[in-house]
Amino acid sequence: MAATRFSSGLHVAVFTLATLVAVLVPASAAADTVVVAVAANFAAPMKELASRFESETGHEVTVVAGSTGKHFSQIVHGAPFEIYFAADAERPRRLEDDGLAVAGTRFTYAVGRLVLWSTAPDFVDADGRVLESDRFRHIAIANPRLAPYGRAALETLENRGLAGKLANRLVQGENVAQAFQMVASGNAELGFVAWSQIRDVAVSPEGSLGRGSHWLVPEALHAPIEQQAVLVKDGTLARAFLGFVASDPARALIREYGYETP
Prior knowledge:
Strand order of the largest sheet: 1-3-2-4-11-5
CATH topology of the largest domain: D-Maltodextrin-Binding Protein, domain 2
Number of strands: 11
Largest sheet: 6 strands, mixed
CATH superfamily of the largest domain: Periplasmic binding protein-like II
Shape: globular
């Protein structure tokens, strides 16, 4: 299992965090590392959160990004993650119920939005009617069994009465990051991804992939994408990082990436 290491680079003062870490983490624990599993859709904001935490505390955060379902299975089988940032609420709750997570630490850190996206301008209309057309051969989604964004995509198609019609055109990535790459590379003309993945691209003509076109899926078409975190292995540094992500400065950053926060 390969870990993606995010180095620090931002120097933003989070005074409440400094106070928290001074209390929770003794000086003898300097340069300790906390290992977290994070849903693929949240990799970019987690990179920045980890950098801020590292810059403020001197401690390190090792981030492993991937599908929520795969991380869940790895945790059940003893993977050495200390915090689990899932893309749903179901799996953190199951870990807690089964005694595989620390009771009372689970909380919603973000609420995601699903978007239908194409790199081609004017391809996806404002109501998603392109889904009813024959203008595309492939539509990318994350694996609904592993990824909550994939499940939300399938629910959207079912509620639009299109799941059966488009079944042979669906191409699946293990997670929403892979679905994004399928569209970005041109292997799929369009796909369901996280709004946070394309937000900057969609609103800026200078984006590396161009403006493209998108349909922000109405939340009524699928179950809420409530993303929860839970402490898997107790420790002072892990609790400090979890508390940081729940702090007001961190929540403000999360909203900048296109998520809602409680």
